[in-house]
Specification:
Elements lengths: L6 H15 L15 H11 L7 H14 L3 E5 L2 H11 L7 E5 L4 H9 L3 E5 L10 H11 E4 L2 E4 L6 E5 L10 H11 L2 E5 L7 E2 L2 E2 L6 E5 L12 E5 L2 H11 L23 H35 L2 E2 L6 E2 L5 E4 L3 H13 L5 E2 L19 H7 L2 E4 L14
Parallel strand pairs: 2-3, 2-6, 6-7, 7-10
Antiparallel strand pairs: 1-11, 4-5, 8-9, 8-13, 10-11, 12-14, 14-16, 15-16
Helix pairs in contact: 1-9, 2-9, 3-9, 4-5, 4-8, 6-7
This protein binds pyridoxal-5'-phosphate.
């Protein structure tokens, strides 16, 4: 690997992005509605089923669950709500701790906080950008003790109730190894699969390795419902609990209102679900097109000595957001400046959660790889190009 990402190579990269996406401002990721999106949403309006009741919700839930190979799907108003409800039904309670990664979007930690728990941050792998099973094992062995069937943080006395890794930019992390560790330590695995719809480890979809997982259908994700989320699980009881909790915990009855616990109004409206059903129809073609865009970036980077983030062998990413790794923070900032000034939207990876005021005092393992990556990773425009829209027609 050539360590020098030369200014000439980076200027040529901006030209290549223009070749792919054409003139005008180029966003990082924009939604595309070339299939049945209009027909299905207009049908909701015409039939008056725009809100929390309607057949598209159940259809969307079943479609996403089937695509992921999970037994059950529960739609929610957004991915953050899905993660929150998933943690609650997985048994996370006030005062617990949840092991996660510091290199993630804020929603991961927000969901942990909504459940009344505190995050603990372990490092990521430099190739997947997701939780490192080796770092997880090191942290658990050095910082926890077993008490009955539980794993307890030796420093705080809190129960480690769950582990929540995240599949960064749709690149599957080493989730099978993490699942085995969670099994060994008696910790519930909840996958933050918000970014990884369409990402597989061998034949198995991300989000099916733990007890429960959540996908996001926000407008910037690979497919969208405007805003939305889906919880997936194979556990019928967890699915029932999740549906109940996210729909105000109302006991079914033809006319009486009886709510048996404090639930949430996390329902996905039928209007959004209708959009989602159409987007799921387009997803296979979208994945194929995005793989081609990623291959163009990969080949360009290989030819110009740039470091392109590629999934390790055996892992099939959805290529939601492509990323490169620059030499240092100065090189990163120079590229961000130049590309954005040229109308090509590029973005750095997130600031580490451990550096935000709410989470600065949470335990972490040093986060060597996460810190290194946070200074160097830049996302490139990754939408389906206009020239490929024909392949998305219903
Ligand atoms: C998008 C996202 C979520 C959930 O997001 P919503 O915007 O609430 O749908 C959660 N975690 C990660 C890592 C995400 O990227």
């Amino acid at each position: 690997m050539n360590p020098a990402s030369s200014p000439a190579a980076l200027a040529a990269l901006v030209d290549t992005i223009r070749d792919i996406y054409g003139p005008g401002p180029i966003p990082l990721h924009r939604p595309v509605f070339e299939g049945n999106e209009r027909a299905y949403t207009i049908d909701c309006i015409d039939s008056n089923f725009v809100s929390s009741v309607g057949a598209r919700v159940a259809e969307f839930e079943a479609t996403v669950a089937a695509f992921a190979g999970a037994a059950h799907g529960i739609a929610t108003v957004n991915g953050s709500a899905a993660l929150h409800a998933a943690l609650v039904v997985a048994g996370v309670e006030r005062g617990d701790e949840v092991v996660t990664q510091a290199l993630t979007f804020i929603a991961t930690c927000n969901a942990i906080s909504y459940a009344g728990a505190r995050p603990v941050f372990v490092d990521v792998d430099p190739d997947t950008l997701g939780m490192s099973p080796a770092a997880l094992r090191r942290w658990l062995e050095a910082n926890t003790r077993r008490e009955g069937g539980r794993t307890v943080n030796a420093a705080t006395g809190a129960r480690i109730a769950a582990c929540m890794p995240m599949h960064t930019f749709g690149i599957p992390c080493r989730i099978a190894e993490i699942a085995a560790l969670c099994e060994e330590f008696g910790i519930v695995l909840v996958e933050d699969s918000a970014e990884s719809l369409g990402s597989f480890v061998g034949p198995r979809h991300t989000g099916t390795f733990g007890r429960i997982a959540a996908f996001s259908f926000n407008g910037n994700k690979i497919v969208t419902t405007g805003g939305g989320g889906v919880i997936v699980t194979d556990d019928a009881e967890l699915a029932r609990r999740a549906k109940h909790l996210t729909t105000t915990a109302k006991r079914p009855h033809p006319y009486e209102f009886f709510h048996d616990e404090i639930g949430f109004n996390y329902r996905l409206p039928n209007l959004n679900a209708a959009l989602g059903v159409a987007q799921m129809e387009a997803l296979p073609a979208m994945l194929a097109i995005k793989a081609e865009v990623a291959e163009r970036y990969r080949a360009f980077c290989a030819a110009h000595g740039l470091r392109f983030v590629e999934a390790p062998e055996g892992k099939v990413p959805n290529h939601w957001l492509n990323a490169i790794i620059l030499d240092d923070r100065a090189a990163r900032d120079a590229f961000l400046e130049a590309s954005n000034a040229a109308g090509v939207m590029t973005r750095p990876i997130w600031q580490l959660m451990s550096e935000l005021p709410m989470y600065a005092d949470c335990q972490n393992d040093g986060l060597g790889n996460a810190r290194w990556l946070a200074e160097r990773v830049v996302n490139l425009p990754s939408s389906v190009p206009d020239s490929e829209f024909g392949r998305l027609k219903a």
